[in-house]
Design brief:
The complex is a heterodimer of chains A (about 375) and B (about 375). Chain A has about 375 residues and is mainly alpha-helical. Chain A has 15 helices and no strands. The model of chain A has no long low-confidence stretch (mean pLDDT about 90). The longest helix of chain B is centred in the N-terminal third of the chain and has 30 residues, at about 5-30. Classes of the chains: A mainly alpha (about 375), B mainly alpha (about 375). Chain B: Its main location: membrane.
């Protein structure tokens, strides 16, 4: 059977899926008695209208790049890592421990150390589900879901009983030392004469996220390990026949996935709140699923999808502020994107494929 | 702990186990039919919200119940559409349904009632009433059996008894009827069912629809029986605990009841106590035995030793810390967070196959394609 051209698969189908999701979301806005056009205007202005707005959009996008890449690398090995939420939370623990352990003199020293801490803790939290999948055949989806809940309980316990500063009512650590402060966009762009909002949380982790996108691409398409991961994802039997160890691939790809999710903590814990708080991840681990699905597990796609969801998150906050539409609307849009790009993919794909075949026949 | 406290804890355990049990049986039908469903949570949430809304507006809990079950069936059919008709990924579809419900319940609830996603509190006929069994007052005076009867057995709402009756009913349907045999077969080997001239698609849709009904009842009970109205995210992971119970029960109805009751007791305990005191030497002994077991079972491979040895090391560390902080014959406080996480931890242990092996239905999660 002939196939569709590649651009249709990479661009057209995600576009149709997104359009469907947006149309349905528009209907939801209509149904609750608001004007979708006003809503879109509010969202666009609120997320791109000023450098402050851009700062929030890019801040959220940074989170989603990390979690999106985490889900994407597991997808390449045909695994579904639903545990990004827990891995990012535990990654935050790693960042907090590193930042609080030493009175860091400068961020150039603190950042690499915290990066390693976040990656190790995130990977460690993915280790047991990966091991159980590889050696015991326990379904990775179920174990990672369970580990999300276990991590929530663990973080609750640790913050209240071990990490909280005595006398502080809120369950949070003390503030990180000043030397662990990451440069924000305001500080980074000031030397170039660009005036960026002081209050926006976007920081240098955005560049780290871009670096991760590039390294992801190198790993998956330019290295032997990446080839092994992709072949394992296409056909386990073929990979096994080629001498690729399934245990090794499952373990390594899940650990990288956990490490990427953990790295998100550099942005939200070290870059934004500068202390560890309860429930710091705020669902970003789950949004990573939508991001990876929309981005077709490719770093460029993940980057664009993360930008889209950064816009939606920031725009959603603005909607709540100005239009009195709950920001949970973004969760609805996220759900519809997951539904159309992930679960109902065939619903869109089959008719489009048929259309292309018809068109081809007519040309020939 | 005196007898009356015990009865009270068990009583609240039964109430808390009810939504778990209904959702667990819902998952049982779906997964026995070969459709994985991690969207139990979302269906419960949607049913809870709509039933509370309808009950609040009409003042009639029965109308609320039908509305709640209705929306749950709709979502279940959406899951069926994605995973049976369009052969999509069942896990991804379940995730989508969870988010859809989490978002829509708040967005719509805010627009209807303007209470930030809550529904108005239900009063009078808007809630399910406790059913008092006959002779509760006369029998109350009898020691042990009296309070057992009047507190534990009598005095629950209608849906608690429905959930308990659903267990033998599910067992009968699955293991003693033709439909049940076919349903189980379609989860194990759909090609064989197809060859016998029975529609795989129809059977799977039936499984998904039954799942919708039971999930709906679970959600309705949450909002109109256990609580008085809907609050944002009120399922709070119960759909996933039900999923855990299903694995714990190895996809069998009676065991599902046992697992849900166990998880209900755990929830009741963690609601009542901040932490539970236990003698340190018992805790240390348990931890050491577990650590030794892990190391023993990993003696054959280096990878096993690295991972399980690491876990064993953590267990021993926890034991050492509690030993040094309270002394061997002191009391160690088991934190409430641990008791809350215990259902999830137990499920991972069961899944790992260290204590019995949980094997899911063989064709679960795979869309059936007629011609290869």
């Amino acid at each position: 059977m002939d196939k569709m051209p590649k651009w249709a698969d990479v661009l057209l189908i995600p576009f149709i899926n997104l359009l469907l999701a947006f149309i349905l979301s528009g209907l939801v806005i209509l149904a609750i008695g608001k004007d979708p056009l006003v809503a879109i205007k509010t969202m666009v202005e609120g997320s791109f209208g000023s450098t402050n707005a851009w700062g929030y959009t890019l801040y959220y996008a940074t989170n989603y790049i990390f979690t999106g890449l985490a889900v994407a690398i597991a997808f390449h090995a045909r695994m579904f890592n639903i545990g990004g939420e827990g891995q990012a939370a535990i990654g935050g623990l790693g960042v907090a421990l590193v930042c609080l352990a030493v009175d860091w003199p400068h961020w150039t020293l603190a950042l690499p150390a915290a990066t390693i801490g976040a990656a190790i803790f995130g990977a460690g939290w993915a280790l047991i589900p990966a091991y159980l999948q590889a050696r015991r055949g326990s379904h990775i989806v179920i174990t990672t879901i369970m580990f999300n809940f276990i991590s929530a309980a663990l973080m609750g316990y640790l913050l209240v009983n071990a990490l909280k500063e005595p006398g502080n009512m809120a369950a949070e650590t003390r503030d990180f030392p000043a030397g662990a402060h990451l440069p924000s966009f305001h500080e980074m762009l000031a030397p170039f004469g660009i005036e960026f909002s002081k209050h926006a949380p976007a920081n240098i982790s955005f560049l780290l996220a871009l670096l991760c996108c590039f390294l992801f691409w190198v790993l998956i398409w330019r290295t032997r390990l990446g080839f092994a991961i992709r072949s394992f994802g296409h056909s386990e039997t073929a990979a096994r026949y080629a001498g690729i160890s399934p245990t090794k691939i499952i373990m390594i790809s899940m650990m990288i996935s956990g490490a990427l999710a953990g790295l998100m903590a550099i942005n939200n814990v070290m870059g934004e709140s500068e202390r560890l708080i309860l429930n710091s991840v705020e669902g970003a681990g789950f949004i990573g699923i939508a991001v990876a699905l929309m981005g077709r597990s490719h770093p460029v796609g993940v980057f664009l999808a993360a930008l889209l969801f950064g816009f939606l998150t920031q725009g959603g906050a603005e909607l709540q502020l100005w239009e009195n539409i709950p920001r949970e609307l973004v969760v609805v849009i996220q759900a519809l994107v997951i539904l159309f790009t992930g679960a109902l993919d065939n619903m869109v794909r089959a008719p489009v494929e048929r259309l292309f075949l018809k068109f081809k026949k007519r040309v020939a | 702990m005196d007898f009356l406290t015990l009865i009270q804890i068990l009583d609240s355990a039964v109430r808390l186990a009810t939504p778990l049990l209904l959702a667990c049986l819902a998952g049982l039908f779906s997964e026995r039919g070969g459709i994985f469903d991690i969207g139990l949570e979302g269906k419960m949430l949607a049913a809870a919200m709509l039933s509370a809304s309808v009950a609040a507006v009409t003042g009639n809990v029965w109308l609320g119940m039908f509305a709640g079950v209705g929306i749950s069936i709709l979502l279940a059919l959406l899951h069926g559409l994605a995973s049976i008709t369009f052969r999509g990924d069942q896990l991804i579809s379940g995730v989508a349904i969870n988010f859809l419900a989490a978002g829509l319940t708040v967005v719509i609830g805010q627009s209807w009632f303007g209470l930030g996603g809550r529904t108005p509190s239900l009063m009078g006929e808007g809630r399910f009433k406790s059913l008092e069994w006959p002779l509760t007052e006369t029998l109350e005076g009898i020691p042990i059996a009296g309070p057992l009867y009047s507190e534990l057995i009598s005095g629950h709402t209608f849906l608690v008894y429905v959930a308990l009756l659903a267990v033998p009913a599910s067992w009968f349907i699955l293991f003693r009827t033709r439909f049940g045999l076919r349903l189980r077969a379609v989860g194990e080997n759909p090609a064989a069912v197809d060859t016998a001239g029975i529609s795989v698609v129809r059977l799977r849709y039936a499984a998904v629809a039954i799942c919708g009904v039971l999930c709906g009842l679970a959600g309705v009970y949450l909002a109109t029986g256990l609580a008085a109205g809907f609050v944002k995210d009120m399922t709070a992971g119960r759909g996933f605990i039900a999923l855990a119970a299903l694995i714990f029960a190895k996809w069998r109805p009676w065991h599902a009841m046992g697992a849900c009751m166990l998880f209900g007791v755990l929830e009741a305990l963690s609601n009542r106590y901040q932490s539970i005191e236990a003698p340190t030497y018992i805790i240390v002994a348990i931890l050491i035995v577990m650590a030794a077991g892990l190391v023993w079972s990993s003696r054959k491979s280096l990878l096993d030793l690295a991972v399980l040895g690491g876990v064993a090391f953590l267990l021993v560390t926890v034991g050492t810390v509690s030993l040094f902080s309270s002394g061997l014959f002191g009391q160690t406080a088991i934190p409430g967070q641990f008791i809350q996480a215990l259902p999830y931890i137990l499920t991972v242990v069961i899944l790992a196959g260290f204590v019995g092996k949980a094997t899911p239905p063989r064709a679960g999660g795979e869309p059936y394609v007629k011609e290869r």
